[in-house]
Specification:
The structure is a single chain. With 249 residues, the chain is of the alpha+beta class. The chain folds into two domains: 104 residues, Alpha-Beta Plaits; 133 residues, Pseudouridine synthase I, catalytic domain, C-terminal subdomain (Alpha-Beta Plaits, 2-Layer Sandwich). It is globular, with a radius of gyration of 19 Å.
């Protein structure tokens, strides 16, 4: 078997997330159909993680196995696959890797971005959270500093998940303001289900003075999802980078 990594991006608006689900249109299912058709062999795809319904990815890694080595020129193969895929999914690279390389288990860090706009936008309204009013970036970045003091993020995890631990090692978390609104960037070795959206929703409460930074600390220490704020809408969230201990080229 020959293993290949795929680097792709997608707009998640029309999909029920990454993972195959019965009766639902998903990124994984759509990609498997395209590869199986173009490669003329049933092809299963394993992703670097799961994105929820409506979540986007500007950078996503998946892998698949092929019984035969892909000899078709890369540009031509990419053209044929992308021509088959819908307009909201694009493959940028197909990379030969070692047979035991794994898109999910080998990943050492992931980065997410969350986008907030302050005003109605007819062009990008479904790609960011429209939230009227000002947020204090200074206050939200104080909450980021607090976030970095902890490893157990039970308070920001979806309930009844099947993970063995709610510990994550966050290495970067920061808010930035631009002309349209705000961008939150967070990097960690792993993320819990719904974690980034719950963090964003709760931090927005600090930025609008609904809760204090001391309250934010108490929410984390409570280890109880009911203490945290609302989850920010899925359509503002993007997976923007996945890192590996080896170079992808």
């Amino acid at each position: 078997m020959h293993r290949y990594f795929i680097r792709l991006s997608y707009r998640g608006t029309a999909y029920h997330g990454w993972q195959v689900q019965p009766g639902c249109t998903t990124i994984q299912k759509t990609l498997e159909q395209a590869l199986s058709t173009i490669l003329r062999n049933k092809t299963n795809v394993t992703g670097c993680g799961r994105t929820d319904t409506g979540v986007h990815a500007s950078f996503f890694i998946a892998h698949f196995d092929s019984p035969a080595e892909l000899t078709e020129p890369g540009d031509k193969l990419l053209f044929r696959i992308n021509n088959y895929l819908p307009a909201d999914i694009e493959i940028q690279q197909i990379i030969p890797v070692e047979e035991n390389a794994h898109a999910r288990f080998d990943a050492i860090a992931r980065t997410y971005e969350y986008h907030i706009i302050r005003h109605k936008d007819p062009f990008n309204g479904d790609l960011a959270w429209k939230r009227y009013g000002q947020l204090s970036v200074k206050t939200m970045n104080r909450a980021c500093d607090i976030l970095m003091d902890y490893k157990d993020f039970t308070s920001f995890s979806k309930l009844h998940t099947d993970v063995k631990t709610n510990n994550c090692h966050i290495t970067h978390a920061r808010w930035f303001e631009n002309q349209e609104g705000y961008i939150f960037i967070i990097r960690a070795d792993r993320f819990l289900r719904n974690m980034v959206r719950a963090i964003v929703g709760t931090m927005a409460d600090t930025g609008s003075n609904k809760i204090s930074c001391d309250d934010f600390r108490r929410i984390i220490e409570a280890k109880d999802r009911s203490h945290a704020g609302m989850s920010a809408p899925a359509h503002g969230l993007y997976l923007s980078l996945v890192e590996y201990p080896y170079t992808l080229d």
